Amino acid sequence: MHGDGSAARRVRRAAVVDESVLQRTRVGQLLAQDLRLEVVHATATLSQFLAWIERTDRTRWPHLLVIALDLHSGSSRDLNVIAALRTAGIRVLALLSSRSRALTNQLVMSGIDAVVATSDEEDAFLAAAQTVLSGGSTISAGARPPAPGSEGTPR
Predict the structure, then answer these.
(1) Could you identify which of 18, 32, 59, 125 might form a hypothetical disulfide with 24, taking C-beta atoms 3.0 to 4.6 angstroms apart as the criterion?
(2) What's the pLDDT at 22?
(3) What are phi and psi of 117, to 5 degrees?
(4) Average pLDDT of span 117-146
(5) What's the CATH number for 11-139?
């Protein structure tokens, strides 16, 4: 017989970093309701998340970090921090508000596990999160930058 304690230990944890309160709240809801993850922390900035990590027992750290990034937040410092989080065993899914070939490439090189566009459907986000939690990596169709010379790219 398994008690409630063994089930509680198997719960996977997630954290959300996003400046947008509405988006941060919805992402947390999707993770909790659809993927049955325990959302252990939700905050506006990567710095706030790191401060939380520093004072939190490692057994409470998230298995998955969902972080919203844009062209300005993709700084080399942020990418180095994300790479360090990956090294520490935290899987990372980035939400992008724009389709930038350079940023997507930087994220992939830094070890990001998944990239999803904020314009993607919720199902695409959930599929990417599930892929990451299963040990895989993915870039959603909406986050894939257009090929050079294709419609939507500068000429």
Answers:
(1) 18
(2) 97
(3) -85, 145
(4) 93
(5) 3.40.50.2300
Tell me the one-letter amino acid at 27. Answer: V
pTM for the complete prediction?
Answer: 0.87
CB 43 within 8 A of CB 20: no
Asked if 66 and 14 count as a contact pair (C-beta separation under 8 A), the reply is: yes
Cβ 68 vs Cβ 20: under 8 Å: yes
| Domain layout of the chain by residue ranges | 11-139
pLDDT category at 149 given cuts 50, 70, 90 is: low
Question: How far is CA 44 from its chain centroid?
Answer: 13
Question: Is residue 69 within 8 Å of residue 93, measured between CB atoms?
Answer: no
In this model, does residue 69 exceed pLDDT 80? yes
Q: How far apart are CA 135 and CA 126, in angstroms?
A: 14
